[in-house]
Design goal:
about 120 residues; 5 helices; about 35% helix; Thioredoxin-like_sf; alpha+beta
């Protein structure tokens, strides 16, 4: 499995600690330094079963600069959201775990992290 993290994020550090405690094998992706492409982000959203606005961090200054709160949340605007998140990965909710079985989860709680463990 792969986990997208920001090392400065306490939820990310907690998720890593839990994975380590459970002996899980995983790869860390520092997504701010190695941002996902729009295609990768679209695939992860498909695996999550979510829309881009569901995982957008709208409290970030760049979201305010882009006025994302006012953007439509519909199929016609989906690519705009994904493009913004690919260009500004700080907008992506974290941590995200992509599991080997094809599932993915926004791992902000211990329960979410455990949900992808075998």
């Amino acid at each position: 499995m792969e986990i997208w993290i920001n090392p400065a994020c306490s939820k990310c550090r907690s998720a890593l600690s839990l994975l380590d405690a459970e002996g899980a094998g995983y790869t860390v992706r520092h997504y701010l330094e190695d941002p996902p492409s729009a295609a990768e982000l679209a695939e992860v959203l498909r695996r999550l079963g979510l829309e881009p606005w569901d995982v957008a961090r709208l409290g970030e200054p760049v979201a305010a600069e882009l006025d994302m709160e006012s953007w439509p949340r519909d199929e016609a605007s989906r690519e705009r959201w994904i493009a913004a998140m690919a260009a500004h990965p700080i907008l992506i909710q974290r941590p995200i775990i992509t599991a080997d079985d094809g599932t993915a989860v926004v791992a902000r709680s211990p329960e979410a992290v455990r949900s992808v463990l075998p």
